[in-house]
Design a protein that fits this description.
Blueprint lengths: L1 H4 L3 H82 L3 H83 L3 H14 L4 E2 L16 H9 L4 E2 L6 E2 L1
Parallel strand pairs: 1-3
Antiparallel strand pairs: 2-3
Helix pairs in contact: 2-3
Length: 239
């Protein structure tokens, strides 16, 4: 860190301006890097909404099939009753006659149970259709929102890339005006710590980087403003 020992306040002022530019550049790069992840997350959310709508459609289709199955079973049993009554009217045997009566009664009871279940299915179908329609509307709304958001992402990315190029050009001009030793040390620190590496000391003597209390000796040096002072905890430059 010898480069900092000879640094004057003009160097520090220049580096603070450079650091402000680097902070903006760092944020822009992070924002741009996060866009693909945000896009992927939105697409997954959209897929989940579609899957819920699909599940609702499948539930409606399943209930409708169950209703058709019940109706077919009722028709089969009504046909069976017709056969039993025909047999009943044609038989001369009392035992067979009584058996036909019992079969008709048992089948009619089964039909009653089927028709009761059909009514329950109809109620479920009505509720399922309402839920399905709501989820289909949600798909349409979410699709529109997704398209708008993705378009906004594209516009943001284009704007941010242009701004990033501008900031990088401005940074190059600022860096060229900083003495080589000071610039080299600053860039070494930013590579290891990220920005900011030059941080203020608050009125209570806390480092603006790690927020630890600095020593009284270091605090007095910062307040004196005559030399470069490092935080004992995080080793950032204090001003």
């Amino acid at each position: 860190m010898l480069g900092w020992q000879a640094m004057n306040h003009a160097d520090l002022d220049q580096l603070l301006i450079l650091q402000e530019k680097d902070v903006r550049i760092s944020k822009l790069r992070k924002d741009l890097a996060s866009l693909p992840e945000q896009r992927t997350r939105l697409l997954k959310q959209m897929e989940a909404i579609k899957q819920k709508a699909l599940a609702a459609k499948q539930e409606v289709a399943g209930i409708e099939k169950s209703i058709r199955d019940v109706e077919a079973a009722v028709e089969t049993k009504r046909s069976y009753i017709g056969k039993m009554k025909t047999l009943q009217s044609n038989t001369r045997k009392n035992e067979e006659y009584q058996r036909c009566i019992q079969e008709v009664e048992k089948t009619e009871a089964a039909i009653d149970a089927l028709e009761t279940s059909e009514l329950e299915l109809m109620e479920r179908l009505e509720a399922a259709k309402t839920d399905m329609e709501r989820k289909i509307r949600r798909v349409h709304d979410a699709q529109r929102e997704l398209e708008e958001t993705l378009a906004r992402f594209d516009r943001t990315a284009e704007t941010d890339k242009e701004l990033l190029n501008q900031l990088n050009a401005e940074r190059a001009d600022l860096a060229a005006a900083v003495p080589e030793d000071s610039l080299g040390e600053y860039e070494r620190m930013t590579r290891s710590k990220g920005v900011p590496v030059i941080v203020p000391m608050d009125e209570k003597g806390h480092c603006g980087g790690c927020h630890m209390v600095i020593t009284d000796n270091a605090r007095m040096k910062v307040l004196g403003g005559h030399e470069t002072v490092y935080c004992d905890s995080c080793h950032r430059i204090l001003y």
